[in-house]
Specification:
By secondary structure, the protein is mostly beta strands. The protein is built from 1 helix and 4 strands. The protein has a single domain, classed as Beta Barrel (OB fold (Dihydrolipoamide Acetyltransferase, E2P)). It has a 4-stranded antiparallel sheet with strand order 3-2-1-4. The protein starts with 7 loop residues before the first strand and ends in a 12-residue tail after the last strand.
Length: 69
């Protein structure tokens, strides 16, 4: 797999919660918890299951940082 996206993080699937259309896929990226919301169909096509090694590709045009007042 070759991608132009630079925000690629290796992770392990720790849980999948599937609804009618969307699946929340919980990932452990070296102790950092990430959650990806994808379609149930995509989760099935990718063969996602707990323990599976994956690469999270993060696409964001903006990152906003906030602090308390």
């Amino acid at each position: 797999m070759r991608l132009s996206a630079r925000n690629q993080v290796r992770a392990r699937v720790t849980a999948i919660t599937a609804g009618p259309a969307t699946a929340n896929v919980e990932l452990d990226a070296g102790g950092v918890r990430l959650v990806a919301s994808i379609t149930v169909e995509a989760a099935r096509e990718l063969g996602l299951a707990e323990g599976r090694e994956v690469v999270a590709v993060i696409k964001a045009s903006d990152v906003i940082v906030a602090v308390a007042d």
